[in-house]
UniProtKB/TrEMBL annotation:
Keywords: NAD, Oxidoreductase. It comes from the Bacteria. The keyword NAD applies. It comes from Bradyrhizobium xenonodulans. Residues 38-453 form the Aldehyde dehydrogenase domain. Pfam families: Aldedh. SUPFAM superfamilies: ALDH-like (SSF53720). Belongs to the aldehyde dehydrogenase family. The lineage of its organism: Bacteria, Pseudomonadati, Pseudomonadota, Alphaproteobacteria, Hyphomicrobiales. The active site is at E228. This is Aldehyde dehydrogenase.
Length: 485
């Protein structure tokens, strides 16, 4: 382990935070090897303590997250973070005994009498590199799966959410031993070294660009990774869709958390004849939901000045290239900028050469493009990296099934946005550039477990006939095995 740690960047001399991280990692690995498989009671206790961490500090977490954003809607923190965490813990607690039980597996006839079983075992120490956009939910959802599977966890919060990170570190330390679950600081050297540690599994949620760097660092240790990334998630409005309904649901899906959601609709493909009408309907619903006052407490701020400036640049580029921009105010309006709230923006008639169509937007900016035939919309999606989410709106079942069959994405919601993520019995994960691996519910338990195959041979089994000296018995056994194969 020391040799592997010595491969991390900027190793001489190690800073105090880095020494603390490495010492904690060594201690946790040692403990996981001494106690490799905590029983059901120990796992349930850890899940209960994690719930207490959130329940006892719910308002403090809301305030800390809001402080990091500049302003975060309290309602959005509750429904999109706290309640989802409680739901995940409750589900894991209810089903954990069944998940932990050895699974029966059929035994081929030629190997009878015998038994096959799959035995779920903890991987060991899991590292979680958490994002800033939903810091509570996207940090603790994988942690719940890892704890249920019997692992120990080290969490590295985002440097863009320092208030949340400090609170999580404090509250976790009050309920967990440092060899059970630990939250690191957000210092630069910790961030750079974290993915280089030889974890038994590493989870990263964030951008595709950084995800590549994390995968590369983890690959040096052959550490398996779960990457929850993003990309440009499309919404396709079919000719059979109810435009009013689709516009309302896309407006909500886009503006939740001010668009700072990895599965937010990133752009919309609309039949050309309906392009302007649809855009106007989306704008109307955005106004109805969030108004035009930047002081609106329901509307969340952009996380940083740098991200705000990036969004300004995307809109300016689109306007320069001929798109029609619909927004209640200019982004440089002092009333909006003082709150670091970006006006809900529609880019009508977006084209592929615009910067807004080249990168994930991650903000309240929505390009709307026209298409002539359904096949054209499908081809447009398929020319790009496979998205984390895809949304389809319409009533034509054949058209729906055609899109589902001919596109590949991390997940799909039909006639709405986002809600496939909330389905605890479904896996959440990307594909290709939008990620790899999955978690949620039992899928998280499986991700953070080794399903170890075990073969139990009976004393009456004739496999000994395979041993030399072979003679005539092997010919008879070979004939039998060929027949059964």
């Amino acid at each position: 382990m020391d040799q592997i740690l010595d491969q991390a960047p900027d190793r001489s001399p190690p800073s105090a935070p880095l020494r603390v991280l490495e010492d904690a990692f060594r201690a946790m690995v040692a403990r996981s090897r001494d106690e490799p498989a905590p029983d059901l009671a120990a796992r349930l206790d850890r899940l209960a303590r994690l719930r207490t961490v959130v329940a006892d500090n719910e308002e403090r977490f809301r305030q800390a997250i809001s402080a990091d954003f500049g302003h975060r809607s309290a309602v959005e923190t509750t429904i999109a973070e706290t309640l989802l965490v409680f739901s995940e813990i409750r589900h894991a607690t209810k089903h954990l005994k069944g998940w932990m039980a050895p699974q029966r597996v059929a035994t081929a006839l030629q190997f009878l009498p015998a038994r096959n079983r799959l035995m779920p075992q903890p991987l060991g120490v899991v590292g979680i590199i958490a994002p800033w956009n939903y810091p509570l939910q996207l940090t603790l959802a994988p942690a719940i799966g890892a704890l249920a599977a019997g692992n120990r966890i080290i969490i590295k919060p985002s440097e863009l959410s320092p208030h949340f990170a400090a609170l999580l570190r404090e509250t976790v330390a009050q309920k967990f031993d440092a060899t059970e679950m630990l939250v690191t600081g957000v210092e630069d050297e910790v961030a750079k070294a974290f993915a280089h540690l030889p974890f038994d599994h590493l989870v990263f949620t964030g951008s595709t660009r950084v995800g590549r760097l994390v995968a590369e660092a983890a690959g040096r240790n052959l550490t398996p990774v779960t990457l929850e990334l993003g990309g440009k998630s499309p919404a396709i409005i079919d000719a059979s869709a109810d435009l009013e309904e689709a516009a309302e649901r896309i407006a909500y899906g886009k503006l939740l958390n001010a668009g700072q959601t990895c599965i937010a609709p990133d752009y919309v493909l609309v039949p050309e004849r309906s392009l302007q009408a649809f855009a106007e309907k989306v704008r109307a619903h955005m106004r109805r939901m969030f108004g035009t006052d930047p002081a609106n407490k329901d509307y969340t701020s952009v996380i940083s000045d740098r991200h705000y400036a990036r969004l300004e640049g995307l809109v300016a580029d689109a306007a320069q290239r001929g798109a029609k921009i619909l927004q209640p105010a200019r982004p440089d309006d002092p009333n909006w900028k003082a709150h670091r709230k970006f006006p809900p923006t529609l880019i009508v008639g977006a084209t592929e050469d615009m910067a807004a169509m080249q990168e994930e937007i991650f903000g309240p900016v929505l390009p709307v493009l026209g298409y002539r035939e359904a096949a054209e919309a499908i081809a447009f999606v398929n020319r790009r990296d496979r998205p984390l989410a895809l949304y389809w709106f319409g009533k034509d079942r054949d058209a729906r099934d055609e899109v589902l069959a001919r596109t590949i994405s991390g997940g799909v919601t039909v006639n709405d946005c986002l809600f496939h993520f909330t389905q605890i019995n479904q896996p959440m994960g990307g594909v290709g550039a939008s990620g790899t691996g999955a978690y949620h519910g039992e899928w998280g338990f499986r991700t953070f477990s080794k399903l170890k195959p075990v073969f139990y041979r009976s004393k009456f089994n004739r496999l000994a006939d395979l041993y030399p000296p072979y003679g005539g018995k092997i010919a008879r056994l070979e004939k039998l095995m060929r027949f059964m194969s």
